[in-house]
């Protein structure tokens, strides 16, 4: 092929899904990131060299080789390295012809039987490009973390105007972005736009990520094969296949996650020594349709039907089997939508969201009963979607404040979705009053740092003062602790 005359590493590098002896390294070649095809041939493959080093100067290279970036995979590289040392920091980089990528830093997980003294993780979600800058990601890149959990809405499917909405760029974006994503090319280019952001690149280069999706990677509030606007199933499945393919191409995921048409096995489990077991869920692909046409409604026979599921039967069984087999101190469930009950107000009955676990109470009851029967004493749920910081006690019976607390939930706010936000939204007082198990509620942008040790879990809820202009500082809005063996949040 013609030699690369322009830098192909415009979308950065990433790593993910760390195991004790392995990690996935990722990059995408795109010398012209904002045009379809990215300035590369539509067929064939480009050879990409790679290096893994014990130091950031690449003087102690421990592995190296050559990988293919096939046109069929949009010139992406998914390198599943093996034979690594556990709980070890490594640096990596790629080379294509004369061009060298930025260096990334990654870390393997501890051995499954290791006694881990402490670990720190980031919690991220919801980064709508045209609603604000990725200031939170720039700050997260500078945090001392072992890994990051991203729990959904990496991209959004909406049309983006020439000024990039709230970013108000003086130089216009290409007109290609100004339509809703439907085709494979649409989704591939949407990832190119998002990944061109330097703060997103920095956050990926700084830490390995565990990723799962929510709805906007395809379409808002879809449920299984049912689109938001009830499009013909065959048309929606074709759109879902395009979205899933572009998602896999652009994430540091292994070969078993590669989709087959509109189906992709994304839920998966990781051990982090004896300290924690991570279960990453997919609450979109297998769920029943939202009850009562979606939105906020008073619970009733339709939403309370015990046959309804947010996970699907197979994933639910996999989760509960994992609880029974777990020997970890902490069982961490990273998933998409609010798990704890959240009433709209103190009216009885009150409306709840049909898109969250409140719309699938039988699913939630089965998960909590399964955790309790398995002897899981330290359940931690990590959530996104809502564009707010929330800290919940997970109750056995949410309608009884005196019922047993079975775990805790940290619901992290958005990176940028929802524009600048505010500390106390309009429903702040009514929401806190209606939900005594809700310990904190804040609608600014940011992320969560989750710290684990054998004695406690801590959530530091970080916020930035705004995202519609770049460069805002970050601060810790609140911190909460829960002790091992005695679940329940208290202020740190």
UniProtKB/TrEMBL annotation:
Q: Domain of life here?
A: Bacteria
* Pfam families associated with the record: PhoD (PF09423), PhoD_N (PF16655)
Q: Where is the Phospholipase D N-terminal domain?
A: 11-108
Q: Where are the transmembrane segments?
A: none
Q: Where is the PhoD-like phosphatase metallophosphatase domain?
A: 121-460
Q: In its UniProt entry, what is this protein called?
A: Alkaline phosphatase
Gene3D superfamilies according to UniProt: PhoD-like phosphatase, Purple acid phosphatase-like, N-terminal
């Amino acid at each position: 092929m013609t030699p690369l005359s322009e830098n192909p590493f415009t979308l950065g590098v990433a790593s993910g899904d760390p195991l004790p002896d392995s990690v996935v390294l990722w990059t995408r070649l795109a010398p012209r990131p904002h045009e379809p095809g990215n300035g590369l041939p539509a067929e064939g493959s480009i050879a990409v060299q790679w290096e893994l080093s014990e130091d950031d100067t690449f003087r102690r290279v421990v592995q190296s080789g050559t990988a293919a970036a096939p046109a069929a995979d949009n010139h992406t590289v998914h390198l599943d390295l093996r034979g690594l040392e556990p709980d070890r920091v490594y640096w990596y980089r790629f080379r294509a012809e004369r061009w060298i990528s930025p260096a990334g830093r990654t870390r393997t997980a501890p051995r499954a039987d290791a006694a881990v003294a402490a670990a720190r993780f980031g919690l991220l979600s919801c980064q709508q490009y045209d609603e604000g800058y990725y200031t939170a990601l720039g700050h997260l890149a500078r945090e001392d973390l072992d890994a990051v959990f991203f729990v959904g809405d990496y991209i959004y499917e909406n049309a983006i105007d020439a000024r990039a909405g709230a970013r108000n760029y003086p130089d216009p974006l290409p007109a290609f972005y100004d339509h809703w994503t439907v085709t494979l090319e649409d989704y591939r280019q949407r990832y190119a736009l998002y990944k061109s952001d330097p703060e997103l690149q920095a956050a990926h280069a700084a830490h390995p990520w565990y990723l799962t999706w929510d709805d906007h990677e395809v379409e808002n509030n879809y449920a299984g094969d049912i689109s938001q606007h009830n499009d013909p199933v065959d048309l929606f499945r074709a759109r879902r296949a395009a979205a899933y393919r572009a998602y896999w191409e652009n994430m540091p995921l292994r070969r078993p996650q590669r989709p087959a048409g509109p189906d992709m096995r994304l839920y998966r489990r990781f051990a982090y020594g004896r300290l924690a077991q991570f279960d990453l869920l997919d609450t979109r692909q297998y769920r029943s349709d939202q009850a009562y046409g979606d939105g906020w409604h008073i619970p009733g026979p339709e939403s309370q039907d015990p046959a309804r599921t947010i996970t699907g039967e197979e994933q639910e069984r996999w989760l509960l089997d994992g609880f029974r087999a777990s020997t970890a101190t902490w069982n961490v469930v990273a998933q998409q939508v609010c798990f704890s009950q959240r009433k709209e107000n103190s009216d009885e009955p009150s409306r709840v969201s049909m898109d969250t676990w409140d719309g699938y109470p039988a699913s939630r009851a089965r998960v909590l009963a399964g955790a309790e029967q398995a002897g899981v004493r330290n359940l931690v749920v990590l959530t996104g979607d809502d564009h707010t910081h929330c800290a919940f006690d997970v109750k056995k019976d949410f309608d009884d404040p005196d019922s047993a607390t079975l775990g805790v939930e940290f619901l992290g706010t958005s990176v940028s979705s929802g524009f600048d936000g505010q500390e106390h939204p309009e429903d702040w007082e009514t929401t806190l009053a209606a939900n005594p198990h809700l310990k904190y509620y804040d609608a600014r942008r940011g992320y969560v740092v989750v710290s684990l040790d054998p004695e406690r879990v801590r959530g530091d809820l970080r916020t930035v003062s705004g995202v519609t202009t770049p460069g805002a500082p970050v601060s810790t809005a609140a911190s909460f602790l829960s002790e091992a063996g005695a679940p329940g949040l208290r202020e740190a």
